[in-house]
Amino acid sequence: MAAGIETIKATVFDFLERNAAQIALLSDNIFYFGELGMQEYESAALMSGLLEDGGFTVERGISGFETGFVATAGSGGPVIALHCEYDANPNNSQCSGVLDQEAIVAGAPGHCEGHNVNAAVMVAAALAVRRAMADEGVPGTLKVFGAPAEEIAMSRPYYVRDGYFDDVDIAFHDHIWGEFSTEYGLIQIACVSAEFTFHGETAHAGLTPWRGRDALDGVVLMDMGMAQYREHMEPMMRAHRVITHGGDQPNVIPERASVWWYFRDPQAAGARRLFEQAKKIAEGAALMTNTTYEVNVKSAVWPVRGNRTVAEVIQGNIERIGMPGWTADEQAFARALQEKAEVGVEGLRTDVTPLTGPSKTMAASNDCGDVSWKVPMGRLWFPANVANINFHHWTGGAALTSGVAHKGALAGAKALAGSVLDFLASPALVAEAKSTFTEEIGDTVYESLLPADQRPDQEINRAAMETYRERMRAHYLDKRPEFI
């Protein structure tokens, strides 16, 4: 390297500060795209295009995901991977900067968690590190993975199964939060996502119902069986569902009905065990209704774990950067929003969160889990939303194009870029992370929960986006970011 790591970090931070408006613009563009998982065409094109313009070689459509990509820069070791998501949620359209529920487009999808900011932080950090690799001779390879459809836990298990992380040494995931923090240990739980489709036979429901075999009855009885089984589920197990097809009209007995389930447990084996029990219950429901059933595993993810060494490196960068400076107006907005949401009213946090020990496991899942059992991985939580606010609710979107999101994104991009540089510059640190990773996973052998021949369903959410995209397009920003 042409300079010491601290000098290079200062140069990288200068790049990010110089491009703070571009980071904000990237985040805001993706916010207004508001694309559901598997349909993030505008978001993926913007992100991958910026990386390509910044010197990365981009492979699009990886593992069968039309809106997935991997961008690569540099050569040799170590190989560092960044990965994050950029999908929105159904019926979560929300204007930013207002203190009432107000849709941009009524009924449309939207960002009410902050995956738009996740994307901006990852791309900005990658561009900054790439510039340092080129200008300062920083060694190694940087890979940037665009991961579609995190909200339905889709893409990264496919990436890992298909070998995209086989040569990776260290991985980083970034995610929006109301605090500036990281953690290690078991962070989130495993999940199997599967759709059960029952098949029967139509008949006139009024005249000759005895001639029909009601597929919806199969769905209902499976639901009842799962409800009864909850008594025997372990404390952290979760099972929840939506009926995706229940028939067409009441006077025609449904010949097809489908229900989409999530099965969760802190361990991959536990999620698999719960899924196997659900298949037995579905078989019983089919026997009772004289129907048949089939199962389509949409995705299956391991629990998310954080590596202690990577967490310590991230924490060091968090503490160096510190929390953004919030204005009085930003604090007032945050308190008013917390009051609206009926959560703890504390305003925006002003201190970074210390790294105190292994994380308390949350009962949510994230499809980055498979990555975290393949290589040492750390997650950066960056402070770009209001503390205590619930995601997937209109209040989760109220600050996402505000100064809160923009300042938090800049801080997050600095911490992520600084952490990547620490590993690129130190083979010893990479070796330490691999050593602690080996200790942490013990005798656990990673094996994908996905069926070997399973391919992603690119049609998920297509109809919904086709319904709303043109109306949403009227609200797209007319300016795209240009990093300098």
Q: What labels would you give this structure?
A:
13 helices, 4-stranded antiparallel beta sheet, 484 residues, Aminopeptidase, globular, 6-stranded mixed beta sheet, alpha/beta, Alpha-Beta Plaits
Proper CATH architecture of the largest domain: 3-Layer(aba) Sandwich
- Count of beta strands: 12
Shape: globular
Beta-strand content bin: 15-25%
Number of helices: 13
Low-confidence stretches: none
Mean pLDDT: 97
Count of folded domains: 2
CATH topology (level 3) name of the largest domain: Aminopeptidase
N-to-C order of helices and strands: HHHEEEHEHEEEHEEHEEHHHEHHH
CATH homologous superfamily of the largest domain? Answer: Zn peptidases
How many strands, which pairing sense, and closed or not: the largest β-sheet? 6 strands, mixed
Radius of gyration: 23 Å
Specify the structural class. alpha/beta
Q: What proportion of the residues is helical, as a percent range?
A: 25-40%
Query: For the largest beta sheet, what order do the strands appear in spatially?
Result: 1-2-4-3-5-12
CATH class of the largest domain: Alpha Beta
In whole angstroms, the N-to-C terminal distance is 22 Å
